[in-house]
Each structure stands twice: as C-alpha cells, then as structure tokens.
Amino acid sequence: MSATTLPEHGLVPEHGTATAHIAEVLREAIVRGDFAPGARVRQEQIADLTGASRAPVREALRMLAAEGLVTLVANSGARVSSLSLPECEEIYRVRERVEPLLLRMSATGLDAKTLDHLATLAERMQHAADPEEFLALDRDFHLTTYSGVETVVLTDLVHRLWNRTQAYRRVYTGLMDERARKTVHDEHGLIVAAIRDRDLDSAESLLAGHIRRTRRQLASHPEVFSPTSTSTTPRSAP
Q: What is the CATH number assigned to the segment(s) 85-225?
C-alpha cells in the first residue's frame, strides 16, 4: 500500500499518547504487510495522515527502530527493516528455544473456553483459502496459546520476534505445498490436544518442530533474502 493510503486514525494528541498511537498504527501496517521490507517510511506523509506534528512521528519511528521493525538512516529517513538469511535463521533459532518455554508457562492458565477457541482457529485455518486469512488466524492461534500467563520479559520478546519475522512468514505461506500445509494443520491440532491433556513435554516438542520447519523451509529459499526481493516503496495491500 502506498504511504498516502495509510489508514487515517483521526487527530491525535501531541505528546506521549500521540507517539504511542503513531507507533501502533505503523506497527500494525508493517505486520499486516502494507509496507514491504526495505520500503521507505516518510515522516512528512505520516504526520499529514495522522494529524500529528513531526516530533511524535520521529519519536514513534525511534520506538519502532528499538523494536527492530524500522531502520533509521542518517540523511535518508526510515525504512522498514529487512533481514538477511543468517539474521532470520538466528531469530528463528531463538524462537525455537523461547516459545516452547512460554507455551509451558502459559498452558496451565488456558481454560476450557480458550482451548475450544484454539481448536476453532485450527479448524478455520484448514479451510482458509486466502493466505492473508491464514496468516491472521495462525498469528491469533499461537499468540493465544501464550496468553495464559503474565511475564516480565518473555511475552514482549516473543511478540517482537513475531513482528520481525512476519514478512518472511508471509513468504513461507506462499511456498507451502499441500503436504506442508497438511503438516502445519496436523501440528496445530496436536498442540491443542497436548495442552488439553496437560502433556506439556509433547506440546513443547511439537511447537519447537513447528518453528524449526519454517526456518528450514526459508533457508532453502535464499532468494527470498536477496536485495532484489525487497521493495524500496510501500507495496499495495492485498
């Protein structure tokens, strides 16, 4: 999507709340895929569209830079961060370690209603013809599995790692063949069943393998990470 079609969220206050609002709007747009890796984010356009001054826009971009979502370049402004293959592999290896831990911590706090919701999400994913619908359901599924516990650091870390790799998960979704899709769907169902049974060792193992499979699939497509595969301008939304 072009920066000129960034969703308008109305006028916002000028200080901390404005900064947080702008950061959230941009974060959602990047995660949603409205801005491709490498796309330039123009401060003046964001300021015009949100009704804010340049100051909170600059602060919001600094916040997103601290999260790894944008890169600030001197005399060039901000661009949506892109990952090299080694960087993406490292993030996925971290996810393989920390997300099973968070799942174990969260699982006992997931009640029957939440588990039913997870089962529904898993079923809906099997019938999702639109890749963007699948991505949204898959994100909801996994982040919901982590919602049964309040943590000091871990939940925020996992959310940030998800946000940084979302563009590449989008690519991975397009690379999956029928066999890979079936494996993914089966694993979702098995994860829910393991949590219901309080078999947390199996739940951890299933999730680690689930994440590892995505990492290995992405690693087999290095062209995804080449400079020519990223856009220098925001792309259109699906």
A: 1.20.120.530
